[in-house]
Design brief:
The structure is a single chain. The mean pLDDT is 93. The protein has helices at 2-6, 21-31, 40-47, 74-90, 93-104, 109-127, 134-137, 143-163, 167-170, 176-188, and strands spanning 51-55, 63-68. The protein has one domain (2-188). It starts with a helix and ends in a 6-residue tail after the last helix. Strands 1-2 form a two-stranded antiparallel sheet. It is globular. The chain has 10 helices and 2 strands.
Length: 194
C-alpha cells in the first residue's frame, strides 16, 4: 500500500500529523487523479459530508438544513471522517483548535473538519507541497522560518515512511515526495537526511 501511495500525489497527505499511510491511501484511491477531480463543492457532496439544504418560496423563502444524503461514496466518507477525527485528536495545533471550536459550538466537528481536510488535501496534491501552518503560507513569511519548520517536521514524515518499509521508494528522485525533498533542500539550503 505504501509503495502504491508513494507513486501518487496522495503521498503529500502523510505530511499531516495524525494522517498515516492507510488513511492517506484510502482518501487518495477514492479521489483519484486530483488534477481531473470536480470542484471542491462537488467533491464534498460526493463524499456525503454536507447536509442537504431545502428552500421554498423563491430567493426570499426560508431555508433549512436536512440530513446528509445517503447517496454518496461511503468508502470515501469513512476515510474522510476518520481523517478529520485524527486531525482533531493528533493533528497540527490550528486544526486541533478548530476541531474543538466546532465541537464546543455544537457543530458536527467530523463533517466540518472533513470539508476542511478535503480542501487542504486537494491543494497539497495539486501543488505538490507538504502541509504548512497558515503563518508560514503568508508571502511575508521568512525563508528561515519555513526551513526550520521543514527540519522540525522531517523526522515525523521520515518515520511514517520508514515504518511502512517504503522510505527509499517514497523519497526516490522520481517520486513526488522525492522531488519535493530535492527542491526544498536546494531552495532552503538544508539537509533532509534519509
Amino acid at each position: 500500500m505504501a509503495v502504491g501511495l508513494a507513486q501518487t500525489q496522495g503521498a503529500f497527505l502523510t505530511s499531516f500529523r495524525g494522517i498515516g499511510i492507510v488513511l492517506a491511501s484510502g482518501v487518495t484511491s477514492e479521489i483519484g487523479n486530483p488534477y481531473e477531480q470536480a470542484p471542491l463543492n462537488n467533491l464534498v457532496s460526493y463524499t456525503g459530508i454536507i447536509p442537504r439544504v431545502k428552500q421554498t418560496g423563491g430567493p426570499q423563502g426560508e431555508s433549512y438544513s436536512g440530513k446528509v444524503s445517503k447517496r454518496c461514496n461511503r468508502i470515501l466518507k469513512n476515510y474522510v471522517v476518520q481523517s478529520a477525527s485524527h486531525l482533531g485528536l493528533h493533528g497540527p495545533q490550528e486544526l486541533m483548535a478548530d476541531y474543538k471550536r466546532r465541537e464546543a459550538a455544537g457543530q458536527h466537528a467530523d463533517f466540518g473538519m472533513g470539508r476542511r481536510f478535503l480542501r487542504i488535501a486537494m491543494c497539497l496534491m495539486r501543488t505538490s507541497q507538504i502541509y504548512l501552518p497558515p503563518r508560514l503560507r503568508e508571502p511575508e513569511a521568512k525563508l528561515q522560518e519555513r526551513a526550520d519548520y521543514y527540519l522540525m517536521n522531517w523526522p515525523n514524515l521520515h518515520e511514517k515512511w520508514r515504518k511502512s518499509g517504503a522510505l527509499k521508494v517514497a523519497f526516490d528522485k522520481n517520486m513526488p515526495l522525492g522531488q519535493w525533498r530535492n527542491i526544498v533542500q536546494q531552495l532552503y539550503k538544508i539537509k533532509l537526511a534519509l
